[in-house]
Amino acid sequence: MSWLKTVIGTEKAVIAMCHLRALPGDPGYDSKKGMNWVIDKARDDLMALQNGGVDAVMFSNEFSLPYLTRVKTETTAAMARVIGQLMGEIRVPYGVNVLWDPVASFDLAMAVDAKFIREIFTGAYASDFGVWDTNVGETIRHQHRIGASHVKTLFNIVPEAAVYLGNRDIRAIAKSTVFNNHPDALCVSGLTAGSKTDSALLKVVKETVPDTVVLANTGVCLENVEEQLAIADGCVTATHFKKDGIFDNFVDESRVARFMEKVHQLRG
Q1: What does the pLDDT look like over 46-60, one tens digit per residue?
Q2: What family is this protein classified in (predicted)?
Q3: Could you give the maximum distance between any two Cα atoms of the chain, in Å?
């Protein structure tokens, strides 16, 4: 039995993203609408996801585009305010993802009692955000310094909008990531949010590290969830749950419900 069962309550878990709208300091932030509007929209999406039956949610600053690899204090503070105001209404296990800063994600997780975080913890990349380096040794030491050893770590090993600077295949990456870092899960992604995770790639990762939880991290939808969950231990889903399956839109509860009905059928 994996930690998905003990922490989230089921194997083949569906973790739904609750995408926060642009926050103070972000280029897209609407200061006229203000933070109360951001909170209201986050609440609407959270309710639609929960009412639709998802197993868990993960809050992220998805609309903080373009992303920083070391976020500003105002971003973490704003996310803490949003989640803090929603905590009394959250009915499922939840995690956080401060894009793309694992130290800030741990800080936020401790502030709001999150059960897991997803991040780029390891590797060096050429990316849309410039040359992107990480320091997993320091990050994990920070996790333990602040008392976050219980927070589950979801390692994204196929970063969106980035390629490894080193010439390593996915088998080597998966094997060394697990050996060196003991992640709680590996996330396998497509090119961008909403892009399908390659099933062949997913299969290679799962076969390479069969004792580690492997999640399909992007692009899982009603049409491919059977194929993806036949390989992966669970999935992280966002774009498919939005109106018309469009990234910029808000969550459509009916799409969530249809997807989760299919997942329950697959679980038997």
Answers
A1: 999 999 999 999 999
A2: Belongs to the BtpA family.
A3: 51
- The C-alpha atoms of residue 192 and residue 9 are separated, in whole angstroms, by 28
User: Which helix (DSSP H) or strand (DSSP E) does residue 58 occupy?
Assistant: strand 56-60
Q: What is this structure's pTM?
A: 0.97
Nearest CA-CA partner of 120 in 205, 165, 187, 174? 187
- Encoded tokens for 164: 């490894």
HSE-up of residue 140 (Cα within 13 Å, Cβ side): 15
Backbone φ, ψ for residue 92 (5° rounding):
-130, 160
Strand partners, 235: 14, 216
Alpha-carbon distance of 238 to 258, in angstroms, equals 14
Please report the domains of the chain, with CATH numbers, ordered by start residue. Answer: 3-267 (3.20.20.390)
Q: Which of 91, 49, 11 is nearest to 263 (CA)?
A: 11
**pLDDT, mean over the chain:** 96
Over residues 223-263, the pLDDT tens digits come to 999 999 999 999 999 999 999 999 999 999 999 999 999 99
Cβ atoms of 101 and 71 within 8 Å: the answer is yes
In degrees and rounded to multiples of 5, residue 181 shows phi and psi of -125, -15
158-169 burial code (b ≥16 CB/10 A, e <16): bbbbbebeeeee
- Distance, in Å, from the CA atom of 47 to the CA atom of 33, rounded to the nearest integer, reads 21
* Structure tokens belonging to residue 101: 């800063």
